[in-house]
User: What shape does this take?
Amino acid sequence: MWRKGIAPEMTVQAHSTTPESLRLEIEAGADLLQHGDITGPIPMPEETLSVIASHKLPCAALLTTRRFLAWNEAHMPEPLRHRQSGQERQ
Assistant: This one.
């Protein structure tokens, strides 16, 4: 495990953006998941969500509101637009 060389009193944070990186961070023993709610176009597997809940692993999440999605669609360049899973392009 990668934590071997780290002082046990240190909090290890991991930045996640895909289901695979999220799984690897959990397996590696991260103490806190940054953006654990963002998994790109692939939904988070139910098994991963269950592991996070059973371990009571903290996740820093970015909440997405309809107002944010509307602003984002109107103002952000295409590659940076945040889209909800399954949201169709107009």
Observations:
- The first strand starts at residue 13 and ends at 15.
- The chain has one domain: 11-80.
- Helices lie at 19-28, 46-54, 66-75.
- The CA atoms of residues 9 and 31 lie 11 Å apart.
